[in-house]
């Protein structure tokens, strides 16, 4: 997407036609071409955050999904590659980074005018909000990504 596709940074979700008007309690964002939710409502309610990172020199496609209880699953090219449980301190750090990022006020699309060569693009889902971003990330999203369990 181009920078011109960016939504405003107001306090409500984007009025973009591809995203229904909804608040943080909306169903899981669509993750399949058919428009079906990528997770059941119960799974979405258990999810604290999911981040998918693609691109880079090696053309990676990897995700980390963290549940409310701190358990997490790693995926690479849609195949499970490991998981575990965050320590209470690490989970608290992630929750603090997510709260500070203030997802309801974030722009839904954050792509720089001058993309980083071999940089990453990110899809970050938290609290019913989905953000598409690319390197260099904003400081608040950088803190979220840095607080995650490692991608690999």
Describe this structure in words.
The chain has helices at residues 41-46, 88-101, 139-147, and strands spanning 47-55, 60-67, 71-76, 79-85, 109-110, 120-126, 129-134. It has a 7-stranded mixed beta sheet. The protein is α+β, with helices and mostly antiparallel strands. It is 19% helix and 30% strand. It contains 3 helices and 7 strands, in the order H-E-E-E-E-H-E-E-E-H.
Q: Provide the spatial order of strands within the biggest beta sheet.
A: 4-3-2-1-6-7-5
Topology order in helix (H) and strand (E) letters: HEEEEHEEEH
Shape: globular
Rg, Å, rounded: 15 Å
| Structural class assignment | alpha+beta
The N- to C-terminal Cα distance equals 27 Å
Q: Kindly state the mean pLDDT as a whole number? A: 79
Instruction: List how many beta strands DSSP finds.
Output: 7
The fraction of residues assigned to DSSP E strands is: 25-35%
Q: Largest sheet, described in full?
A: 7 strands, mixed
- Roughly what percent helix? 10-25%
* Low-confidence blocks of residues: 1-38
| Number of H/I helices | 3
């Amino acid at each position: 997407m181009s920078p011109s596709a960016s939504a405003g940074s107001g306090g409500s979700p984007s009025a973009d036609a591809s995203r229904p008007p909804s608040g943080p309690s909306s169903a899981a964002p669509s993750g399949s071409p058919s428009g079906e939710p990528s997770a059941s409502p119960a799974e979405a309610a258990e999810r604290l955050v999911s981040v998918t990172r693609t691109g880079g020199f090696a053309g990676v496609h990897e995700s980390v999904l963290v549940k409310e209880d701190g358990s997490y699953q790693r995926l690479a090219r849609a195949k499970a590659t490991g998981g575990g449980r965050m320590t209470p301190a690490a989970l608290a750090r992630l929750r603090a980074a997510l709260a500070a990022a203030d997802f309801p006020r974030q722009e839904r699309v954050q792509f720089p005018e001058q993309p980083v060569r071999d940089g990453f693009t990110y899809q970050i889902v938290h609290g019913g909000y989905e953000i598409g971003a690319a390197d260099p990330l904003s400081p608040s999203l950088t803190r979220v990504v840095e607080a995650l369990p490692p991608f690999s």
